[in-house]
Structures are given as C-alpha cells and as structure tokens.
Design goal:
This protein has four helices and two strands; from the N terminus they run E-H-H-E-H-H. The chain has one domain (2-101): TIM Barrel. The mean pLDDT is 89. With 107 residues, it is mainly alpha-helical. It has a two-stranded parallel sheet. Residues 5-95 form the Enolase C-terminal domain. InterPro entries: Enolase-like_C_sf (IPR036849), Enolase_C-like (IPR029065). This is Enolase C-terminal domain-like.
Length: 107
Amino acid sequence: MLRGDVLLKGGITSLLKIAHLAEAFAMKLEIHHGGNSINDVANLHVQMAIANTSFMEVLLPHEAWWHGLVEEIQIDADGYVHAPTKPGLGYEIDLELVERQKITTLS
C-alpha cells in the first residue's frame, strides 16, 4: 500500500499519477489528511477519481482542522463523505477569513 496527499506529492496530477502507478502493480493508494480543509477538498477529488483506494484518513476531532472554506466537508453518520455538487472543486473559499488573517498586501 502507498500513502500520499496532494500537498506532499506535488498536487492533484502528481497524486493521480502515483495512484495509477500503484494500480498497475495491484497496490492501493490510501490518502491521508491534507492538513487543512482546502487540501482535503483536493484529496477528496482524487479519491473519487481512483478505484484503488478504500479510505481517506481524517484527523479527529475533525473540526479542529477546519480552515478556509465557507462550508466545510461533512462526514455523514456512516462515516462517508459525498461528492460536492457545486462547480470546480465544489467548495467555496472563505474570503472573509482570508481578509481577516491578511498581514499585508503587496503591490
């Protein structure tokens, strides 16, 4: 089994390449926590695009890692996450949070 995430493996495309290589050798790719909500959204999309995976690691308490989205990824009562239905990656970045935490603006 291989493990990875979009942050440590160079992005969505790189993680997909690793997944396909693992699949060629009959190995699974298990995706671990991305460190924040935005990375986890990208991880979730990779997970939904590959067949050779069984689970995605989520650190608990899950809420402690929420950061950066208007509406966070929700885990249902059975432990599943469902595909988003909105365009793009399906989640909206919390631009008000970004503005509040901004240190300076470069011009």
